[in-house]
User: Fold this.
Amino acid sequence: MTASTAATANGTTSSAGNAPAQADRTINFRIKRCDGPGKPSRWETFAVPVGRGANVISCLQQIAARPVTTEGTRTTPVVWDANCLEEVCGACTMVINGKVRQSCSALIDTIAPREGDTVSLEPMTKFPIIRDLWVDRARIFDNLKRVKAWVPIDGTYALGPGPRESADSQTTRYILSTCMTCGCCMEACPQFLIAENEHEWETAFIGAQAISQARLFNMHGTGKQLKGDRLDALMGPGGITDCGNAQNCVQVCPKEIPLTESIGVIGRAATVHAIASWFSGR
Amino acid sequence: MAQQRVIVVGGGLAGLAACIRIAEAGHTIDLFSLVPVKRSHSVCAQGGINACNEVARQQGYSEYEHFDETIYGGDFLADQHPVLEMANWAPKIIDLLDRMGVPFNRSAEGFRDLRLFGGSLFKRTHFSGATTGQQLIYALDEQVRKLEAEGKVTKYESWEFLAPVLTDEPRCVGIVAQDLRTMQTRAFRGDAVVMATGGAGMVFGKSTNSVICTGAALSRCYQAGVAYANPEMTQVHPTAIPGADKLRLMSESARGEGGRIWVPRKQGDTRPATQIPEAERLYFLEEKYPDYGNIVPRDIATREIFDICVNQGMGINGENQVYLDLTHMDPDYLTSKLGGIMEIYEKFVGDDPRHEPMKIFPGVHYSMGGLWTQYVRGNYAPSEPQPAHVSGTTPACDTEVGRGMLLGAPTNMMTNIEGLYAFGEVNFAFHGANRLGANALLSCIFDGLFSGVSVANYLDNGTPSTAPAESISAGVFEQAVAAEDAKLKAIFETATGGEASDETNPYIIGREMGEEMTAAATVVREEARLEQCRGKIAELRDRCTRLKLADGATWTNQALSYARSLGDMLVIAEAMVSGAVLRQESRGAHYRSDYPDRDDERFYKHTYAMFDHGTGNARIEHIPVQADLVAPRARTYGEVTEDDENETTTPETASAGA
Assistant:
């Protein structure tokens, strides 16, 4: 093989980082900003040159490098949460043009196809703000503790394989298990309300995500040992009966997880569990 | 005795596995992560996790062959004993993950399904759709959440590791970390510190890595005196989709499941892919490597794609891209086996890879190099290094625990600083000069589970048992915090004055670093260009001393965190390039056009870099590879060349049995 050092591994269709080589048009970003908890919000607008393949992340990167508004005012780089940039980590969720979604997969050619189009970015509203577009979603992870979203194993010593499983069962569990804890289903849910204080979490509506995770673990051969605990948690305050059946959750889920189906499955299991509990006097 | 604590930095697979094993041994853990641990970069791993399994075993495969493949795949640069132990543990690790509830794909009968992966002719890769990393980290995350609920693990999420706290000996007794929201810095005491902070892809600007994979944590350890081994070894993955913000991985499993790489035979053929007949397509990997075809190891596939595009100008429409084609396969099969990556391609490119061949090009992917770690050898000691293993023959070594490494030895995966460990991608231990696909998830989890025992034993029987971190004078910690505060203050104060210019803008400096590193230190390297790159890094470091911060906020100042990391990234960039300059040979991912052959005479050695505070650069020596188990052999993967008589004709091992 002969060699050349002329080309680069990543300089192919556009340059690295924050300046697309072939910006073919300019669009506007209207961004709702907030300096911190309890601080007032304000809107700032930035003009951003975009080229093929641009997404909201690449535009925010450009704004970070040159934080000047359309009025010519120097401001600070916008704060936002992001990590994988390929829609598997859930970090970069925000409200884009009024709809909650991941910003990495928000392609400019789709959401703002014409010269001069405006894209609005807002933080999610159901979680306490940290700064600008970054919100604190600790509550979602805490909800997973409420429903004991784990398989109780005996430890890490070599004890052979887990339970055998049919391909059908795996297919169902896999879809449920792609939930990346992004919070879209909660943002869109009319029953899920912001709770600034941790002590409110125990009784506030838990949301579709944790209910679906309870279903996931109830399906597993070993995980179902905690089925009763999970159902007890979901039959208490903030549990399954708080669901208003708006069905927004399933429409906004980026992973197309059958959330309403999960709510139905858990609802029926809870009824059976309640009846069994009455008879057993527990 | 004072309460002992372990600090784990990083909540990916390696860090979480470490938490689980160390907590099981009865110790309490403080876990630090830049992001909620469930969002760690491990989620991006797609293809699978390797382990010998019963089907492959009955076809003549073995744990020993997995070991042999890994050593050969890494072009003999890995210390061999840890790799043997890892391969032997792999089946047990799969069983454990299965017990934790990982939804591994299933066969019709309900057994775990298997797929082919690079560098092997046996199906030995276990998988969960094409989001295996996500599924594995979720399983470990769930176990750690249980430990958190039980009070055995305390999480510090959205905290950044700034420095290890060292005593004069030196011994690591804690860390300094910063809350990324309040910007508060403080010291934490720990009887042992486990670094599990992953790779450094962001040094190359755009890569397949997540935005937190800056290598800054590694750099901060290196600057504190931890040796950095084989910094020049960075894997460039053959198949990524170029994007405006990052390069998105298209898993090797696409080829493992039957995907074919090709370009039009006729240069400049502008017809759409689907209109180019079979005979007019050049399947260049299959032609050159009849045995392995599209599943040659990554470094080889990357160089071939690069060569076809850059040197021969045969890329699609003259651009740097080739086809990765799955359209000959059943769309339903593709959805069930590769759904995760099909979805990524559809969402980010807009075409359906079930019907349109994907367009891909190589992208920076994995750091084989990393913090230097030690270990205690196990009891397998052949009288001389063995030749290539032949599939189906009795393995030279069995799978008893402790053949490769001594289980529980306190120094396993400890760096050159006592009490400071490195697990997972941040260490250099398993992959030599090139990592085989689907070995990364394995090495990360293996480190946590196997060497987690070593951490527990170090607490129980080592220095901390008589001199716990609690007993160390507060002054040591106060000094460490003051040193970090001073560095942050120096950057922070630049926010108050001066007009921003590209010259002093940290984001622009970072972009220039990425472009330069990608141009000079990825697929093909050459001395003059590397030297030029070294000069550019020096220039960028100088500009960093004068940078202007665009944000003067004392709350959640991401610009400050980025600027701080940038300086640390440039420090390891220098080591990566200097290591590449001094390694005057080609080995694995490190290809030098001016030294195109492997040179075992001079460079069957690790690059061992120590940070020199005087020059601010790496002080590099070369130390022997611990290689008593397998003898080096030519690494050809059965390549068919025009001048075949000049090729070394080492018999191909794996082709015999498949």
